[in-house]
Amino acid sequence: MLSSTWNFLKRHRRKFIFAGVFVGGVYLLGKYAQRKIQELQEREAAEYIAQARRQYHFESNQRTCNMTVLSMLPTLREAIVLRLNSESLTALLKSKPANKIEIWEDLKIISFTRSVVAVYSTCMLVVLLRVQLNIIGGYLYLDSSVGKNGTTPLASPDVQQQYLSSIQHLLGDGLCELITVVKRAVQDVLGGVSLKQVLSLQDLEEELSEVRRRVEQGHKALSWYMMPDEENALAAQACGLTEHDVTTIKLLNETRDMLESPDFSTVLDTCLSRAFSRFLDNVAEFFRAPEGDSGPSDTPGSLSHVSLPLAKIIPIVNGQIHSICSEIPSHFVQLSSCLHCVTSYVSERRCSHIRTTRGR
Predict the structure, then answer these.
(1) Phi and psi (nearest 5°) for 324?
(2) CA nearest 225: which of 170, 282, 268?
(3) Which residues contact 70 (CB under 8 A, 6 or more apart)?
(4) What is the mean pLDDT of residues 49-62?
(5) Cα 109 from Cα 84, distance rounded (Å)
(6) Which position has the higher pLDDT, 340 or 222?
(7) Each residue of 131-145: b (16+ CB within 10 Å) or e?
(8) HSE-CB for 200 with a 13 A CA cutoff
(9) CA atoms lying within 13 Å on the CB side of residue 342
(10) pLDDT attached to residue 145
């Protein structure tokens, strides 16, 4: 019995060897495939978690942007009203002075100037903060992702404070220069328009378009009002720059590069166009067809034939700053589609820059 079994094994030993090798190979291949599948599942799970984390970080950062903008609008409004004080002129008019026409002319220029400045500066504040907070948010996300490895943070609290404080240029020197430029444009366009001249909404839109053209085709790009051309004051120091100062300067230079790019100019121009359109919509609410007019007052374009004397338009325009720079969420701040463009543009540029920075 044993000898016959042994003889059988000897006769078919090659088959058994091949069968063993085949079975062993299949077993090892199965183990290898199982390990690879497990690694792939773990990698997909890690990518999903990272994506969910990035999405949460992104949404949280956008909420922070919106709340920060709303919290700064009262400061911006006060700065504009302080420099373009029309209330003192309206108070003088109530006293029936002898130079009433002269005061009305001054009120005309100041009213239009401060509303136009309010539209420009609000849009600039929104997009600048959106750029800055998205840049900071990108570095904070990267810091939180690699922080456990002992890497020095890119955006420490001191760097964040120094970097975000650069917004004061827009609320200070930038705003003063913007007021000067806008006031000159308003004077050139509306200075010769009589207070008695009647204007339709279309007329008013054309006048504002001409003001915009003069402002935006001036010798300074709009980006200058948000951030000066020259190097940051920190860079002007001869010595004593800390590591935080150097990092802040890099962030400021990165921001300046973004603000001066053609793509960003396109985004800002889109935001401004939407904001001025909203401004005209607000003014249009005060244009009403005369009582007894048989024309349809609720159809599109029904206000095209309605005109008002410039003297009656001035108070309407003068009061728009409280709507434009309102801390209550409004169309001027939301501009959702424009802000999406800003965020997408910044995110793309930021991710590329951060990858380069980390690779050094």
Answers:
(1) -70, -50
(2) 170
(3) 327, 328, 329, 333
(4) 53
(5) 10
(6) 222
(7) bbbbbbbbbbbbeee
(8) 9
(9) 29
(10) 61
The yes-or-no verdict on residue 175 having pLDDT over 70 is yes
4: which 2 tokens?
A: 């016959």
Query: pLDDT of 303-322, one tens digit each?
Result: 667 889 999 999 999 999 98
The phi and psi torsions of 306 (rounded to 5 degrees) equal -90, 130
Locate 113 and state its tokens.
């100037």
Residues 2-27: pLDDT tens digits?
566 556 555 656 665 666 666 666 66
Helices (H), the chain: 2-11, 13-83, 87-94, 100-146, 157-164, 168-171, 173-190, 201-216, 222-226, 243-259, 262-284, 310-318, 321-324, 331-334, 336-359
Largest Cα separation within the chain, whole Å, is 137
pLDDT at 355: 45
Tokens 């190097």, residue located: 231
